[in-house]
Design brief:
Keywords: DNA damage, DNA repair, DNA replication, Ligase, Signal. Its EC number is 6.5.1.1. One of its GO terms (molecular function) is DNA ligase (ATP) activity. It holds the Pfam family DNA_ligase_A_M. This is DNA ligase. It is a single chain. The chain is about 20% helix and about 30% strand. It has about 280 residues and is of the alpha+beta class. It has two domains: about 180 residues, D-amino Acid Aminotransferase, Chain A, domain 1 (2-Layer Sandwich); about 80 residues, Beta Barrel (OB fold (Dihydrolipoamide Acetyltransferase, E2P)), CATH 2.40.50. The strands form three sheets. It has a five-stranded mixed sheet. The longest helix is centred in the first third of the chain and has 13 residues. The radius of gyration is 20 Å and the shape is globular. The two termini are about 35 Å apart.
Length: about 280
């Protein structure tokens, strides 16, 4: 116990921005959806590309998903990680979420597949100080390391105006990116959803729980035609678009959660043109 306390004291003196190790029960910081507002304080935020990967939390000893599941990365990947907690996105480039999912969720790490994965860092979970301070701490550490394609810091840019934000968003979408993240430059780290972290996408996404199925017709008559789901607001509806042939044959289990996208809500509160994006990662 004395050795552990001594270690924490040395860490605090050397890197004062790092917080005490966090518990598995604590949740990470999550994003709210950005809503256009003429009074939005653009100068207080920084913007970056939203990466379509899997959130990774390094607590200094174990790499985990945002739900606390251990990620079985190869030893060489673990050796790249800093001696302090960091948070980032395990990413394989635009449009390659399926590759990240297959690689990162495998309990037997495939060396060849992990060569395609990068850990793009963006924060220190439950670190002290404002975001600018935490971000600069990661930057300073990375600048002292040998450059490696599997570990880098997300680029953050000042936001000058709504027009500037729209232009940045358009550039990312043209490159088949997912969207934009906005982060309050001076915000403290706290769990749960907050307007200190905002996301922008060309569509709206949400999560729902699978509660049933609808039988398919035509070429899908022996498979699933649609998922019957219920969102967090208690609204039930069908999702038929976005299902792969594999998912129609072996659909997400009853009780599991999925992420879907839609254009807007109808006057009855149901998502308009819902489309399955993916099964939720646990």
């Amino acid at each position: 116990m004395k050795m552990k306390l001594l270690y924490l004291s040395v860490l605090t003196l050397t890197h004062p921005v790092y917080a005490m190790p966090f518990q598995d029960s604590e949740t990470v910081m999550l994003a709210e959806s950005y809503q256009k507002d003429t009074s939005f304080p653009f100068a207080a935020y920084r913007m970056s590309e939203k990466l379509d990967g899997i959130r990774g939390i390094w607590d200094g000893q174990v790499l985990k998903s945002r739900t606390g599941q251990k990620i079985y990365a190869p030893d060489w990947f673990y050796r790249l990680l800093p001696p302090f907690p960091v948070e980032g996105e395990l990413w394989a480039g635009r449009g390659n979420f399926h590759l990240v999912q297959q690689t990162v969720l495998d309990h037997e790490p495939a060396e060849k597949s992990w060569k395609n994965i990068s850990f793009v860092l963006f924060d220190i979970p439950f670190g002290t100080g404002g975001y600018q301070s935490r971000y600069e701490t990661i930057r300073n550490w990375i600048s002292g390391q040998k450059q490696n394609p599997h570990l880098r810091l997300i680029e953050q840019y000042p936001v000058l105006s709504q027009k500037h934000l729209d232009h940045f968003m358009a550039q990312i979408i043209r490159k088949s990116g997912e969207g934009v993240m906005l982060k309050n430059w001076q915000s403290i780290y706290h769990s749960g959803r907050s307007h200190d972290l905002l996301k922008l996408k060309p569509y709206i996404d949400d999560e729902a729980q699978v509660v049933g199925y609808k039988k398919g017709q035509g070429k899908y008559r022996h498979q699933i035609g649609a998922l019957y789901v219920q969102n967090r607001q208690g609204i039930r509806f069908y999702i038929g678009s976005g299902l792969s042939d594999r998912q129609r044959a072996v659909p997400p289990a009853i009780g599991s959660w999925i992420t879907y996208r839609y254009d807007r809500l109808t006057d009855k509160g149901k998502p308009r043109f819902p489309r399955l994006l993916r099964e939720r990662i646990h």
